Amino acid sequence: MTQFNNLQPKPIWDFFSQILTIPRPSDQEELVREHLIEFAQNRGLDHEVDSAGNLMIRKKATPGMEKRQSVCLQSHLDMVCEKNSDIDFDFLKDPIPAYVDDDGWIKSRGTTLGADDGIGIAAQMAILDSHDIAHGPLECLFTVAEETGLTGAFGLGEGLIKSRILLNLDSEDEGEIFIGCAGGIDLTAWLTFEKVNTPANSEAFAVTVTGLRGGHSGDDIHKGYGNANKIINRFLRIIKDQLSASLHDLEGGNLRNAIAREAKAIITINKKDEAQLSSLFEEFKQNMHKENPVTEPELTLELSHHSLPDQVLGERSFEQLINAISACPHGVHAWSQTMPGMVETSTNLAAIRMEANEVKITTSQRSSLESAKEDINQMVTSVFRLANARCQKSTGYPGWNPNPDSPILKISNESYQTLFGTKPQIKAIHAGLECGLFLKKFPDLDMISFGPTIKGAHSPDERLEISTVTKFWELLIDILKRIPNA
Ligand SMILES: [Zn+2]
Known about the structure:
Blueprint: H1 10-19, H2 30-42, E1 46-49, E2 55-59, E3 71-76, E4 98-100, E5 105-108, H3 115-129, E6 138-143, H4 151-154, E7 165-168, E8 176-181, E9 183-192, E10 195-197, E11 202-210, H5 228-243, E12 246-252, E13 263-270, H6 274-291, E14 300-306, E15 311-313, H7 315-327, E16 331-335, E17 343-354, E18 358-367, H8 370-386, E19 390-393, H9 407-420, E20 425-429, H10 434-441, E21 446-449, E22 454-455, E23 463-465, H11 466-482
Helix pairs in contact: 1-3, 5-6, 5-7, 9-11
Bound molecules: zinc ion.
C-alpha cells in the first residue's frame, strides 16, 4: 500500500488504502462496521446502528459553523466481490491487491477494486477525522447490502437521518451531478397451456436468435437494441398463420434487469412445407437486418433441423402465447418533461421459460415517478390478464423524481463552476439508487449524488481515476463550506 502515500489529497487516500484491507462483501459487513465504530469511539464521535445494520456516525459543527444546516453524507459499506477465475483470492480474508497504474488509474490485480463505494467511505472518514475542514453539524451514514438489493436502505431505521440535506457519494462519473433515479417493479405472468400429440407427418426445427447487444434494462433501454423475445415471436406469428406451425418449446432472455439477447424456439410443421419454411425464414431474416442495420450488426438468425418431439402446444394455447408476447410493451414508455433526454418510464420484456404446463414470462418496469411506475406495471398486467395469465407483481422500490429547483443542487452547481470553471452535467439515472428509498422514509430530504470516475464497476476491470478523486474531494469540502444557516 506504500504507493498510495504519494497521492494527494492525503487524508482520503490514507483511508481508502485502509478500507482496502478490510473484508466487506454484501451482507457480511461486520468487520468494516466494527472498524468504523472503533474509529468513531477513538475520536469521541457518537454512533448508532439500526436493526438493518446501517451505521450512523455524527460529528459536531466546527467552530463558527454551528448555525449551519445539518448535512448527511452517505455511502454503502458493501462491495461486489468478483474475481478472475485464475486468481486465488478470498474476499473474506485477503486485502484487495490494489495498485497505482502509470496511466493515472488505481486498479486491482484480478479482483473488483471496491472503489464502489470504498472511495465514498474514505471521504466520509477523512472528514470525520479532520480538524481543519469547516462544516456544520454532520451525519455520516454507511448502509449495508446496497449491491444485492438495497437491503440496508429498505430497512433504514426510523428517525436515523436527522439532516434535511443528503449527499450520496455513490455515483461514478466526475463532472456529473445526479438528482434523480428510477424506481422499479416486476410483473411475472404464467400462461397455462394444453399439450397435444405432435400431428402426423410433422418435422421439427430449431429457430434461434443470437448476437444481440442485450444491455441493462435501465441504462440501455433507450438505445433501441433488439429484444430476442420480440423478434422470435414475430417469426412464430408468421409461420403459425402461413404454415399452421406448432410450438414445442420457447425460451428467451435471462435476467429480469437485462434486455433479452438470445431466444430459441422448437417448432414443428408438416413435412411438405419445408421449402416454404426456408423461404419465409430467409425473408424474415432479411427484414430483421433491414430493421436493425445500426443497432444490431451482429444479429444472427438460424434455422436447423431438430429431433421430433412427442407433444406440442395446443393451437389455442399457442395463439394466446403469441398474442400476449406481441402485445406486451417493451422499451421506453415516456420521456421526462422536466429533464430533456431522460427516460422517465420504461418496461422490459425480460424472459420467457416453459415450465411443466405453464409459460413463465418475466417483465420489469421502471419510472422516476411512483404513479407512472404503477401505471406501466398495470398496463403489462392487463396484457397478460387478457390472455388469462396468472399475474404476480413484486414489492418494488421507489424512485427519486428529479427536482431541478433543489437548493442543494444550486449550491453544488455554483461550487463546481467556481472551483473548476466549467458546468457540471445535471442528470438523473434510469436505474435504482438508495436515494429513492431514503426519500420514502424522509420525504423532505434534499439530495444530490456525485463521485469520482469509476469504470468497469462490479467486474475485475473496476478502476478509479486518480485525478477525479482530487476534484471529488475539493467539491465535497467546498459544498460543506457553502451550506446556509438553518
Ligand atoms: Zn455503489
